[in-house]
Amino acid sequence: MIRTIRKTALLLACALMPFYLGQARAELPIRLMVGFPPGGTTDVIARLVAQRMSEDLKTSIVVENRAGASGNLAASMVAKADPDGKTLLFAPSSHATNASLYTNQPFDPVKSFRAIGLVAVTPYVLVVNPKIAARNVHDLVAYLKKNPGMVEFASASPGTGQHLAAELFKMDAGVDIMHVPYKGSAAALPDLIGGRVPMMFDNIAVMLPHIKEGTLRPLAITSKTRSKFLPDVPTVAESGYPDFEVLGWFALLAPAGTPDKVVNAYNASLKKVSSDPDFVAQLGKLGGEVAARNPAETDAFIAAEVEKWGKVIRSAKIQIN
User: What is the pTM of this model?
Assistant: First the structure.
């Protein structure tokens, strides 16, 4: 009798095991992987999104910082994760440029992921030291062409958005300017304000205080439309280069194979969060603007970014490793 009871209990436990495992899996928090240290723009926006989506989805979203290889470490972890919606990647625009800057990546930036949606974009602004007489892009290009190879531009480091924006500008405008890399935007600012390096592309939020103080002069915005933060400053596209566009961006990605039901539910939550005025205001403090798109549009956008910046990187012969 006892043996029969034990056998029945064992069979029942085995039968219920998938149910219990499923329940335990469902109760696990969603892991949002960030490939950069805490405190940076990517991390701050990721935490804003995680907090708001947690509230909307009624589930815990935990941000995990796995810094390394310019975001490639976290991306690799997510690419290998189970496609069950429990492990996500908060990917900045370097996710697309890394495809050409780094060799032998263990994942494909497009095929290894499914986009949930685009979160935000951060246009750059082209600034010059006031010692440069240029008041607009036309003046600057004329000045650069009169002084080929004599004018330098600053960047936060090789292969960053600031660097690549200037390389694209060189290609489109047909000018020869020299790259001076720094260890971050903050390190470049003293030389930029002092006039030792006269020009730079960088995030609007970084440059805005210096523009307001008059220590730097804005010439153009890198998005196709003007920025609400500098509405009187034209775009590079308006200034004679209609195809020019450079955007820092942030997207929410899942591993390839994640079911449509999960992706669409997360996208709906992300869109709801993006319409919150307080969230929009918080993004604005970081120079960001809401850029909600559906999964298919985001996948196409990232694929286009990989192709676009691959051409620029190959043309400029930039490689990190």
Answer: 0.88
